[in-house]
Amino acid sequence: MNPFFAMFLLFVLTFGQTASLCAPSEYIIHVEKRECAYCLAINTTICAGFCMTRDSNGKKLLLKSALSQNVCTYKDMLYQTALIPGCPHHIVPYYSYPVAVSCKCGKCNTDYSDCVHEKVRTNYCTKPQKLCNM
User: Fold this and answer.
1) CATH architecture, domain 19-52+67-106
2) Strand partners, 39
3) What's phi and psi for 15, nearest 5 deg?
4) Where do the Glycoprotein hormone subunit beta domain residues begin and end (predicted)?
5) Domain residue spans in the chain?
6) In the predicted structure, residue 23 carries a pLDDT above the cut 90
7) What is d(CA 14, CA 11) in angstroms, rounded to the nearest whole number?
C-alpha cells in the first residue's frame, strides 16, 4: 500500500467527524394562532446535515461506548420573538423560536430538540401569510 494513501486513510478515519456536513441551515417556520387573522412565515436557521454514525449489527457484542449515534444538533443558539399580526387584544401575539448560531454532531438533547424525524410534516399556512425577516 502506498504510504501517502495509508496516511490519508488514517487522517480521514481520525478526523472524519470534524468534516461532517452539520451546519446552520436556512428554514422557514409557519406560525399561526386560531384567534389571529394571519399566519406568520419566519425566516430562521436550524441545525441540519450529516454526522458520522457508527452502528454495528453486533450490538450485543460491543460496549455502548463503541456505538455512536450522533445527530446534527445545536452548539450555540439564541431565542428570538416575533409578533403575530392580526391578533385580538385579549390574545398574546408573541411567538418565541430558536435560532441556530452554530451546530455540532452530538447526542440529541430532548430538552431543546425534537429528536424524532417524522416523514409527514405540516409546515404551511391556512390563513393569509405575512413574512417576518429576523
Assistant:
1) Ribbon (2.10)
2) 32, 129
3) -110, 15
4) 21-125
5) 19-52+67-106
6) yes
7) 5
